[in-house]
Specification:
Elements: H1 2-10, H2 19-36, H3 46-52, H4 57-71
Length: 74
């Protein structure tokens, strides 16, 4: 679940004309909401799952953002 969210977050598309790309954008938005949202206290929240697999949620978020920035040359 964590891996899929990071993958979805980092592969956004700017062309919504194609329905597959549009679906990917929706997936990206859902991943962003899940990873960065304020609701972090339910069973399958990003932070709870990070805790279960002994990951630092802030580090995962930073790496995902860094990857996006790097891929766009920022």
């Amino acid at each position: 679940m964590l891996e899929q969210a990071v993958s979805d977050f980092t592969r956004g598309s700017t062309d919504e004309a194609n329905s597959v790309q549009h679906a990917e954008k929706i997936g990206v938005r859902m991943s962003i909401t899940w990873m960065f949202g304020s609701e972090q206290d339910y069973s399958f929240s990003f932070e709870v799952l990070c805790e279960v697999v002994s990951c630092n949620p802030d580090e995962i978020r930073k790496r995902a953002v860094d990857k996006v920035l790097d891929e766009h040359g920022w």
